[in-house]
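Here is a tokenized protein:
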Amino acid sequence: MDKFNFIRDGASKLPPGFRFQPTDQEIVFQYLARKIFSSPLPASVIPELDVFAFHPSNLPGDSERDRYFFARRELDLRSSGGRGCGGFWKVAGLDKRIVCSKRTPIIGIRRTLVFYQGKHPRAVRTDWFVHVYCIVLSENIRCNIHHKRLSQGAQKQIGKWVLCHVFMKRSSMKDNGLQQRCDHFEMSDADSCSSSSSSSSSDLSVLSEVSSTTVDSETTP
């Protein structure tokens, strides 16, 4: 499996000509879910790092490209954000729910944060963004377990990992770049689960494990 390991010195090092551009669904169901439930990853291309302990420009890897990291779940996604070196992260916009076309007991949540340089109240907003992905138990599963409807705010986050996608919104993209990036995710997500048909059997086994594990954890007193 060494030929599928692209992590060097704490950063992703892909061969020339290769780009890692996963969709939201691929991030959640192909990488994050597998990481959380200790299943084999499609490739070792996402390093582990305490992202919020660094200034975004000092993170490992090429700052000119999008970077992806697995991070421990220290960041409270219910709060306004997290502190970083030389500034702090603040939530920007609404959370996005990420679902798979297959019937699964889990869904993904993507939260967008923007980095502010300096200290409040004189901090300056930068062009650094991070998408933080986590996995929660589907409301339908929770309703079946507890025999009542639960609000979105009551969703239970699963696992000890989140996945962080760090990128800079370039000056030439300020008007529509972030929207185009989001549009790309929206258009790609509809087909991303089916596009991974070569690994469908392993996906089903992972999701079966997810289902049994999450239901057992919910029913355990």
Q: What stands out?
A: The two ends are 40 Å apart (CA to CA).
